[in-house]
């Protein structure tokens, strides 16, 4: 990529963010011409960015007035960020201590609008870095976090999963009855595991983070190679994971145990 193309790409992103922020700050519907004047650019340039933002759900257009306002995706993203910040502050010490105690990668996720989204990853101490990118939306049937979410989140159910569960690896649970059994086990024991179900060679165990009235907030998970998290699970890993999840839960108002 040339310097000009790179700079152009950055300017394009900046203008898209300027458009989004300006619509948000206006607090009411706004038109293309008004935005172009406020941003000091052409109507055509603003319109192209508006079109993309509408297609992605960050803005919506009133068909009667042709003006724009914030879309549902902007609200969802904002709520995810707010919830993630609460979860991050409540779990910061717990997940740091968990990572330091076991030396494994710790991944924190939050539930928003039936979506389980990664909000923090603390890399382990191994020379091989294993992590999950912040902002990743986790599938529910093929990882430990998803099984925990299905077990503890009242707003989630097996009904929202496809009739035929896709096999991500040869170890992915694709039988619904088997998944129901694992979700039930997760609910009774307070944690779930997924051994090479989403990525070959990588395993995870996860526990729930609960709030006041036992509502499900998110999950904390240990993620590592199969050498560190194997099918013969280490009870000390499970114990440390649940302890960290409880610490975060208590900080969010949870009064019980799991």
From TrEMBL:
MF terms (GO), sorted A to Z: DNA binding; DNA-binding transcription factor activity
Domain IclR-ED: 73-254
Residue ranges occupied by any HTH iclR-type domain in the UniProt entry: 10-72
Example GO BP: negative regulation of DNA-templated transcription
Keyword tags: DNA-binding, Transcription, Transcription regulation
Top-level taxon: Bacteria
Entries under InterPro entries matching the protein: GAF-like_dom_sf (IPR029016), HTH_MetabolicPath_Reg (IPR050707), Tscrpt_reg_IclR_C (IPR014757), Tscrpt_reg_IclR_N (IPR005471), WH-like_DNA-bd_sf (IPR036388), WH_DNA-bd_sf (IPR036390)
Matching Gene3D superfamilies: 3.30.450.40, Winged helix-like DNA-binding domain superfamily/Winged helix DNA-binding domain (1.10.10.10)
Protein name stated in the entry: HTH-type transcriptional repressor AllR
Organism: Pseudomonas frederiksbergensis
Source organism phylogeny: Bacteria, Pseudomonadati, Pseudomonadota, Gammaproteobacteria, Pseudomonadales
């Amino acid at each position: 990529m040339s310097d000009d193309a790179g700079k152009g790409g950055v300017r394009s992103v900046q203008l898209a963010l300027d458009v989004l922020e300006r619509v948000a700050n206006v607090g009411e519907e706004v038109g293309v011409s008004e935005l172009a004047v406020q941003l000091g650019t052409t109507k055509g340039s603003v319109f192209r960015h508006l079109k993309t933002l509408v297609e992605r759900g960050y803005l919506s257009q009133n068909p009667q007035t042709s003006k724009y306002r914030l879309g549902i995706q902007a609200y969802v993203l904002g709520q995810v960020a707010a919830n993630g910040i609460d979860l991050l502050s409540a779990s910061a010490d717990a997940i740091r201590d968990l990572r330091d105690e076991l030396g494994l990668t710790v991944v924190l996720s939050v539930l928003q609008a039936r979506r389980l989204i990664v909000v923090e990853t603390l890399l382990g101490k191994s020379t091989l870095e294993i992590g999950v990118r912040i902002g990743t939306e986790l599938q529910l049937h093929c990882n430990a976090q998803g099984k925990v979410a299905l077990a503890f989140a009242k707003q989630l159910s097996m009904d929202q999963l496809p009739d035929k569960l896709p096999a991500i690896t040869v170890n992915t649970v694709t039988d619904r009855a088997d998944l129901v059994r694992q979700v039930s086990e997760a609910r009774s024991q307070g944690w779930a595991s997924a051994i090479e179900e989403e990525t070959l060679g990588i395993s995870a165990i996860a526990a729930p983070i609960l709030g006041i009235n036992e509502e499900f907030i998110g999950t904390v998970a240990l993620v590592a190679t199969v050498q560190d998290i194997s099918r013969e699970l280490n009870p000390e890993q499970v114990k440390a994971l649940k302890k960290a999840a409880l610490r975060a839960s208590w900080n969010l108002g949870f009064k019980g145990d799991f």
